[in-house]
Amino acid sequence: MSETMLLIPGRSNKQGTSLNKGKLKEEYLEVTSTVEMNEDDMQRLQLEDGDRVRLSNSIGEFTASCKKKKSKDLPEGMIFIAYGPSSSRLMESDTGGSGMPISKNIEVEVEKVAA
Amino acid sequence: MSDNIKTVKNATCTFCGCVCDDMELTVDLDAKRITKAKNACVLGRAWFAEHTIQDGPAAMIDGKEVTLEEAIEEAAQVLTSAKFPITYGLSDTTCEAQRQAVAITDFIRGSIDTTTSVCHGPSGLAFQGVGESTMTLGEVKNRADFIMYWGGNPAESHPRHFTRYTVTPKGMFTPNGKKDRTVVLVDVRKTPSTPVADIFLQVKPGKDFELAWAMRALVKGHKVDSSIENETGVSLEVLEDLVQRMKNCNYGVLFMGMGLTMTRGRHFNSGAIMALAADLNEFTHFVAKPVRGHGNVTGADNVVSWQTGYPFGVNFSKGYPRFNPGEFTTVDTLSRCDADAALIIASDPAANFPQAAINHLGSIPVVSFDTKETATSKLAHVAFRTSTYGINTGGTVYRMDDVPITLRPAFESPFPSDEDILTPLRKRVQEIVIGKSKAKGAGAGVTRAASPVK
Amino acid sequence: MSTSTRILNGKVYDPINKVDGEIKDICIKDGKIVESVGDDATRIDAAGMVIMPGGVDIHCHIAGPKVNLARKLQPEDHRHDPHPGTPFTRSGSGGTVPSTFATGYRYATLGYTTAMEAAVTPIGARHTLEELHDTPVIDKGFYVLLGNNIFLQQLLKEGRKEEFKHAIAWWINSTKAFTTKLVNPGGDEPWKGKKNSNVSDIDEKPNSNDISPRQIIEAFIEAVNELGLPHPPHIHCNNLGHSGNYKTTLETMRTAGDRRAHLAHIQFHSYAGELGKNPTSAAREIADYINKHPNISCDVGQVMFGKSTIMTADAPLAYMLRGIAKGKWVNADTECESGCGIVPFSYQEHVYVHALQWAIGLELFLLSEDPWRIILSTDHPNGGSFMNYPKLIKLLMDSSFRKEELSRANQKAVNKTLLPDLEREYTLNEIAIITRAGPAKCLGLNNKGHLGPGADADITIYDDQADKEIMFNAPRYVFKSGTPIISNHEFCQDHDGRLLHVAPAYDETIVDTVRPFFEDYYSIEFDNYAVDDSYLHDHEIIPVRN
Ligand code: SF4
Ligand SMILES: [Zn+2]
Asked: Cβ contact (<8 Å) for A75 and B202?
């Protein structure tokens, strides 16, 4: 079962502090490969905190563990991830003549990865 | 902890664009580390705590340790023999180093681009289209009674923005701090910044332009249809109330986050916000400003602009600067496989760029400058390990509002600064270029400086 | 290599030393002009050429925060006018707001070797110094904006004149400035704090407890005089650009009494007529006052037809022009210190107001009796680029050319001025005064603007040509501090130039007076504010008068 959702990469405190320790260090890699999802979305996809999901689009894919967010904080159909190597994998290289690849509100397919 | 302790007052944190210059650092000189950073936020504390000295070579070629001289020579050869060399990064180093980097790129006739192109580059383009009514952050502290953040989460990206500059400080005409201000946040989701806001607007993803444009219409007294709610997620009633507040305030500010520039609409979104702020000056004093990310990305914009006339995405292949975002910006030069050598300074495109760009970067000779090992330094042909600006080296950094600040380094690093390497590299590059032009018999490259008109 | 040079057979114009077109040798040693040099000196034959000291621009906008905003704002301004590099000079881009390198090289290609950036916020001093370091060849300095400084105004309100003076000196030292600049004094607070309004009268007090522009102007003239700065306060009067503003200008000059004052771009302040209606010329009234008052100097701020960029600390003015230009607009507020506005602009011959402005500038040049106190400027890039100077010189030297140009401009406008009847033609000697000797004197630069022994060897050698625009557009040789920069019309060497600044003495306890205000209302730390010596490239402190 997969669904189309919107991925929003952004900054977070943890991403910022772990970045200072080193971008090749465990902590940063973990922070940047955890996604936050709406609780109803997770229920529908039969996901629990810590389960693995695969996010993919025509550019690439990555897997991440997921974390529940209340509906009032994160609307349905939206996924948040701290910027990093994972989110870059789904970024298109075409910048539409601007120099800036679309890096927020990226359409992705989300599916549960069997444990 | 040793007894060899010193404190550095009024030091500057360069982790984010807030560039807070009120740090009081406690430094253990024997251990070569900062043990305490008074006044720093959680990100700043991590910045100071984690920049310790780690053993490792200052220069490597293909992963093997070499002397600095050998590495500089190799870098100069790589850059001067390339047909389409590119320079990229620069937002986490001093203006002094940035000036050398632009000079190198000028002499090798390459492209110069900074991380601006993938953060507020679109706002730079919008600025060229509509201009901007703007201010230094002290004006916000002293005067602003209406503050709106659009598409940003400063609580996590710029933790002291609210407390040091905008929302809480007490200023000349805002003696009660937050009580004297209305704070509005626009975002697609609730974030840790949301609680600060008196009014929160949850805009539908990708509908920022529509929302801003409807507000412009209301400011100008045009009618807006109630279907705007369906379109943007914000009701007409809320918008009308908001626009009234904006027109009636004494000094209004719009802060732009990357939620505007990185999504559908890009420079149109920033342009709509800048135009909205400009329009509001018919009624009151109104300003806008992008909230810039990296410590000295604003310095990079300034240096590249004063040296070339353009802020980023500049190419020197014709012997003079040309500006064309989408052509000379780094994501494009890499993913189109144009670049045949890269000078990457204080940035990690090998981790942050789209895959096609990363792939190409891996296939060309790269010269990298980093304070720690990164994905980019790992794939570099020539890799320099440099000291950290603001911690080990002095120099100049521009805050997000173009205010320049001099750094006060805390302790010495065994590694050279970016400028320490870029300066001899620039000299060597220039030597090679002059040599080549003499060999071509181009009259030592003299061009006509002044010829009679007509 | 010999560091001495002898220039022979040239016709020398050196008004300070009363040399008016004599054939005379000029000798250079170690960067200075000397009486004579040995036989081993490099010899340059300047037969058929005109020798002048290097040009000195007393008022232009070439570096710092507002200039860089204007650069960033206008890619279209640069694209049509690239400035190629060479293996030993940097490339850049031109237009009305050139990149720093292009600015320095282009001044050199006109024979100018000194230029003063006329408006810098104190908090932007560091930025300006970095840009000036990247501005090659010319010597340069800047004027620091203090006329809307909130703390200084507080001192004045409280009648603390002595501390006011020391605070000015502290600010100059802390920024490495050359003198003080007042722009629309008293106008910032109404602009930023009162919904974009402005002061409109020199005696207006926006609030009952405020001080008037006149009080600010008077206090600065007095304090700067006491400090003995080589150049007096550099004043951009209130009401710039408004019809009828000449009265404000006259009042500003009267405020000086018999003390020195410099009025910037006075053309923009010489308009008669009724507020809100089309202006007419008040050049006669202004010129008369200046002719009779040797304490007043001014630069003209000539308007030249074509592209310009309005950039000014007079933010309300830029806002007004935004309504006219209808294009992009920049406003930039600086905490506690200044406003700023930028508007891309273009002056057109057929437009009444533009043609009138053009004519008034020329009237002022031609009506003024003492060339030493009326200095050539376009308020670059406000009235047009400094690259227009050769054409402006031709307009002044060649009355038939002037008539031709006049016939193309809006006739209704030019006929409201005296210009059609003015036959005067400037001589080469007078041109040497208004572009070199005069500005050097006004600035108190004793080693500039002349070719006597001890002067800096900043020298320009032009081919003596009938067409003065061609002549002044292309010097055959330019020396900077004795170094040949242009030789036979070609760049042959690069040069950094020097920063010129002043360092008046002050009572150090003033720091404790400024600090509490600063800590309350600025957004950077007080101890990080003053600019240290690391921002000076090669520099010279111009001594104060005692
Ligand atoms: S807000 Fe930014 S600059 Fe200030 S301490 Fe935190 S990370 Fe450093
Ligand atoms: Zn000016």
From this structure: yes
Task: Return the half-sphere exposure (C-beta side, CA atoms, 13 A cut-off) of residue C348.
Answer: 6
Domain ranges of chain B: 5-50, 59-119+295-385+417-450, 121-290
Residue whose CB lies within 8 A of the most ligand 1 atoms, among B12, B14, B16, for a mutation test = B16
Distances (CA, A) of C219 to B223, B242, C188, C259, C261: 52, 44, 18, 12, 12
* Neighbouring C-beta atoms of residue C347, cutoff 10 Å: 18
Distances, alpha carbon C178 to alpha carbons C225, C297, C321, C441, C539, in Å: 14, 17, 30, 14, 12
Q: Taking every pair of C-alpha atoms in chain B, what is the biggest distance, in angstroms?
A: 75
Q: Is C401 inside any structural domain?
A: yes
Residue B321: asked if its preceding bond is cis (omega within 30°), the reply is: no
Q: Do C90 and B448 touch (CB under 8 A)?
A: no
Distance, CA B52 to ligand 1 centroid (Å)?
18
* Element (DSSP H or E) covering residue A108: strand A106-112
**Cα(A85)–Cα(B115) distance, rounded to whole angstroms?**
16
Domain residues for the domain of C201 are 59-447
Closest CA to C68 of B328, B95, B273: B95
- Whether C228 maps to a domain, the answer reads yes
**Within a domain: C265:** yes
Q: How far is B273 from chain A (nearest CA, A)?
A: 18
Ligand 1 atom 1: the closest Cα is on which residue? B160
Mutate to test the interface with B, among A26, A93, A94, A108 (most CBs of B within 10 A): A93
C positions 139-198 inside 8 Å of B (CB): 150, 191-193, 195-196
> The domain B121-290: what is its CATH number?
3.40.228.10
pLDDT by residue for chain C (546 residues), tens only, comes to: 458 999 999 999 999 999 999 999 999 999 999 999 999 999 999 999 999 999 999 999 999 999 999 999 999 999 999 999 988 899 999 999 999 999 999 999 999 999 999 999 999 999 999 999 999 999 999 999 999 999 999 999 999 999 999 999 999 999 999 999 999 999 999 999 878 889 999 999 888 778 999 999 999 999 999 999 999 999 999 999 999 999 999 999 999 999 999 999 999 999 999 988 999 999 999 999 999 999 999 999 999 999 999 999 999 999 999 988 889 999 999 999 999 999 999 999 999 999 999 999 999 999 999 999 999 999 999 999 999 999 999 999 999 999 999 999 999 999 999 999 999 999 999 999 999 999 999 999 999 999 999 999 999 999 999 999 999 999 999 999 999 999 999 999 999 999 999 999 999 999 999 999 999 999 999 999 999 999 999 999 999 987
Cβ pair C521:B171 closer than 8 A: yes
Q: Do chains C and B touch (3 or more CB pairs under 8 A)?
A: yes
Distance from C-alpha of C105 to C-alpha of C542, rounded to nearest angstrom: 24
Domain count for chain C: 1
What's the CATH code, domain B59-119+295-385+417-450? 3.40.50.740
Contact check, Cβ <8 Å, B156/A102: no
Residue B427: CA count within 13 A, CB half-sphere = 7
CB contact under 8 A, C127 and B398: yes
Q: In angstroms, rounded to a whole number, what is the distance separating the alpha carbons of residues C283 and C248? A: 14
Domains of chain A with bracketed CATH: 2-112 (2.40.40.20)
Residue type, C65: P
Q: Report the alpha-carbon distance of residue A32 to residue A87 in Å, rounded.
A: 8
Pocket of ligand 1 (CB under 6 A): B 13, 15-16, 18-20, 40-41, 43-44, 158-160
Of A22, A83, A88, the CB nearest to B372: A22
**pTM for the whole structure:** 0.96
How many beta-carbon pairs below 8 A join chains A and B? 154
Structure token pair of residue C37: 């040099």
CA-nearest of C148, C140, C127 to C206 is C148
